[in-house]
Structure formats: structure tokens, C-alpha cells
Amino acid sequence: MIQEKIKKPLAEELLFGRLVHGGAVHVDLKDDALVFDIQPSPRKGGGMEKDRHREPELV
């Protein structure tokens, strides 16, 4: 149940949606349904910021 209702929707947002550049998520239960409140991080530098978690490149 956790995989289907929480993990998959959050993974989609992290990989392709509003959380691609980070942010915060609040999960709540309303009327027997999970509700996600997603607050994406503001992008800096006009979308050209470097990925801080990228492995260093070998030169």
C-alpha cells in the first residue's frame, strides 16, 4: 500500500515533476484519501544551477 500510494507518486514528482529541483512535501489524510501538498524549491540562476549531488567528472 505504501509503495502504490506514497512511494510511486513521490518518485514521479522527484524525477519528472515539481520536485525535480528539490522542495518539501506534506502528506495528509482527508476524506479517506492521501493528499500531497507539494512546495517546489525556487530555482536559482535562471535554471542553470549546477547539481550539487553530481559525482565529480574525471578529466
Annotation keywords:
25% helix; 59 residues; 2 strands; two-stranded antiparallel sheet; flat; Helicase, Ruva Protein, domain 3; alpha+beta
Q: Main beta sheet, described?
A: 2 strands, antiparallel
* Beta strand count: 2
CATH architecture of the domain at 2-40: Orthogonal Bundle
CATH topology of the domain at 2-40: Helicase, Ruva Protein, domain 3
Structural class: alpha+beta
> Taking all residues together, what is the mean pLDDT?
81
Explain what you see.
The chain has 59 residues and is of the alpha+beta class. It has a domain at 2-40: Helicase, Ruva Protein, domain 3, CATH 1.10.8. The protein is built from one helix and two strands. The chain has one helix at residues 2-16, and strands at 23-30, 33-40. The protein has a two-stranded antiparallel ribbon. Strand 1 and strand 2 form a beta hairpin. The protein is flat and about 35 Å long. The protein starts with a helix and ends in a 19-residue tail after the last strand.
Quick synopsis:
By secondary structure, the chain is α+β, with helices and mostly antiparallel strands.
Strands, helices and their partners?
Elements: H1 2-16, E1 23-30, E2 33-40
Antiparallel strand pairs: 1-2
